[in-house]
Amino acid sequence: MSLDFVLALHSHLPWVLNHGRWPHGSDWLTEAALDTYLPLLESLQALERDGVPAPVTLGITPVLANQLAHPLFRTELEAFFEQRLEACHAAPESLRQTGDMHLLPLAGFWLERIHRLRKLFHTLDGDLIAAFRGLEDRGRLEIISSAATHGFLPLLARDESIRLQLAVGVREHRRLFGKSPSGCWLPECAYRPRERWAPWPTAPAASIRRGIDEHLADAGYRYFFVDAHLVTGARPLGLTSDGEVTMDGEVGVSVAEANEALAVAQRSPYRAWRVSHPGQGASVAAFARDPKASAQVWSRHGGYPGDGAYLDFHKIRWPGGLKYWRVTGASVDLGDKAPYDPEKAATHADAHAAHFARLIDALAAEEPRKGPAVLAAPFDTELFGHWWFEGPHFLEETYRRLPDHPEVHATTASAHLRRHPPAGALRLPDGSWGANGNFSMWLSEQTAWTWERLWPLEDAYWEVAATALTQPATRTILAQATRELLLAQSSDWQFIISTGAVPDYAFRRFTGHCEDAERLVSALRPGHEAELSAALRLAEESHQRDDLFPDPLPAVEAVLAGSRTLALG
Fold first, then answer.
1. Cα-based distances in Å from 176 to 67, 133, 170
2. With bands split at pLDDT 50, 70 and 90, how would you rate the model's confidence at 369?
3. Is residue 346 in some structural domain?
4. Considering the domain boundaries, does residue 357 fall inside one?
5. Do 206 and 129 fall into the same domain?
6. Is residue 253, in this structure, part of any structural domain at all?
7. Is 241:499 a contact under the CB 8 Å cutoff?
8. Residue 278 confidence (pLDDT)
9. pLDDT tens for residues 260-284?
10. Which of 243, 289, 502 lies closest to 384 in space, CA to CA?
């Protein structure tokens, strides 16, 4: 049976410009550009030159798009290129001193690669957004959007806050890509249906609240992605920060074990489902992440990235930051890693691409299904290149091999829905694609304090927003308060705290944005006119640092005017 294949890539980083450089400032962004975004563009351009269809559904969050379009990004990436090139030029002497001259050819490999990607960056005039937009304009891919700063929508206390995240996201997407997005990548694939809202004992009292799908429909979206267990009823899969598969909280589950557990699915993930509620008007479609194909790509246990020939992510030579070693084996200590062989790794990526194409073809040939079938394979874009160095090559080779499998039709999510509008309606439970399949990575004993600070801030913001829109000075303050509120709502801060990677950084960023937003909002309250001058100075100072979303106030006005206006221009 014919099967539509929808590869969806989710590109996101929190706002890091003007917040330092290494290790979690602008280097986070420039490293992603060098490792992932430029190699992905290189592969997409090669496929276009060769006339090979590669209809990727590419998500770029508004906060990331704002950074890639920012003049400072170009400056920072040029500096990052220089730092990497200096490391390559210093490598011969450094390797000689440590007796590692056998690694010298790899220094040459990195030198050639960095020069090549820098030339590509210059050819694009440093404008990655224009490059991706051009591919979409030529019908090569579809670009979708997300919430403005990747806010964890189901846990926001006010519907106005959910609508603001979506409204700013839609308007920024239209500004940067020239058209309204059809698809939305829900941050963390986190969904909540229409239900009574009581996520935590200290959460504000709330009655029945509208579902996330209803907010998406109001914002003009036609579809979104969810994890498989929300549709199938199977046990939820998750992924740790180290790339290990989890199932019901158990870490280190193999691909084979995951597939066996998922075989009990009650509903097919191989179709797009219409999500709606009784009495609801417009509806949106939900694509379920295919568990079998997805785990094969992102799992270190039996999945492709764990192959011993691939570049090892964790072993880095300092100074310089170059990587010279391969995975070697799952249990091999860092000190025993073998040297990397780029040609051998490319050969393995070719073989894995061929295997992946055959896997999709085999899924198409499985038991007969009722109606049109679609396999959605959503991944973080940064998996390809940054975490899995050979990932962009794997994607390119996968698309080159798909034409050999006529039962598989690569397409975008929107194109599938145009041909096959979802017929069946489904009520989804709440959940995410995080560990345990629920919200626990973002709301737990460890992170509840962040929400206990955000929820009152939401209330305070919306209490002053309407009045603040009426005067030029207060509009300036409200605009920056909006940016700081949106930045504080980023789901990245809770995720980083939960993983324990760099919790002090997440604490500093979260509290800093909250403090600025609180001070700005406080000055807008009735009777606090004496604080306006200081608030104006703070707004100007913080805007020099957090100068994203050029004008968020039309979105605020749209939210206050009513949800049905969000899809309008």
1. 11, 8, 10
2. low
3. no
4. no
5. yes
6. yes
7. yes
8. 55
9. 444 444 578 899 999 976 556 678 9
10. 243
Same domain membership, residue 114 and residue 48: yes
| Residues 104 and 176 grouped into a single domain | yes
226 has pLDDT over 60:
yes
Sign of the alpha-carbon torsion through 133, 137, 140, 142: positive
Are residue 511 and residue 467 in the same domain, yes or no?
A: yes
201-228 mean pLDDT? 95
Residue the block writes with tokens 């992440």? 289
Count CB atoms within 10 A of the CB of residue 534.
12
Handedness of CA 395, 351, 292, 411 (dihedral sign): positive
Residues 406 and 511 in one domain: no
Residues 464 and 415 in one domain: no
pTM for this structure?
A: 0.92
Mean per-residue pLDDT, 227-255: 57
CA atoms of 427 and 448, how far apart (whole Å): 28
Beta strands 223-226 and 408-410 are unpaired
Q: How many CB atoms lie within 10 A of CB 139?
A: 11
- The reported pLDDT for the residue numbered 522 is 98
- Contact in structure between 301 and 255 (CB atoms under 8 Å): yes
Asked whether 364 and 3 are in contact (CB, 8 A), the reply is: yes
Max intra-chain CA distance, the chain:
73
Q: Are 166 and 214 in contact (CB under 8 A)?
A: no
Residue matched to tokens 């964890």: 152
Of 437, 461, 479, the domain-final residue: 437
DSSP state of 9: E
Cα gap 141→181, rounded to integer Å: 12
Last residue of a domain, one of 437, 470, 490: 437
Residue 59: which domain range?
Answer: 3-305+372-437
Alpha carbon 369 to chain centroid, angstroms: 31
Stretch 53-78: mean pLDDT? 98
* Residue 266, domain CATH: 3.20.110.10
Give the C-alpha separation, 552 to 544, whole Å. Answer: 16
How far is it, in rounded angstroms, from Cα 535 to Cα 522? 9
Distance CA 32, CA 25 (A): 12
Domain count, the chain: 2
Q: Which residues are catalytic?
A: 188, 380
- Residue 348 inside a domain? The answer is no
Is the domain of 249 the same as that of 117? Answer: yes
Report the CATH number that the domain containing residue 505 is assigned in CATH.
Answer: 1.20.1430.10
Amino acid making up residue 190:
A
| Structure-token match 């940067």, residue found | 176
Which single residue is written with the structure tokens 């009655």? Answer: 207
- Nearest CA among 138, 191, 144, 158 for reference residue 9: 144
432 and 517 fall within a common domain = no
Per the structure block, which two tokens stand in for 132? 């991706």
Distances (CA, A) of 556 to 151, 166, 458: 16, 11, 13
**Rounded distance between C-alpha atoms, residue 440 and residue 200, angstroms:** 11
Of the candidates 117, 125, 167, the one whose C-alpha atom is nearest the C-alpha of residue 146 is 167
Sorted by sequence, the CB contacts under 8 Å of residue 348 that are 6+ apart come out as 307, 309, 310, 390
Residue type, 14: P
Helix (H, G, I), strand (E, B) or coil at 436: helix
Examine residue 319 and say whether the peptide bond preceding it is cis (omega within 30 degrees of 0).
Answer: yes
Mean pLDDT of 241-250: 48
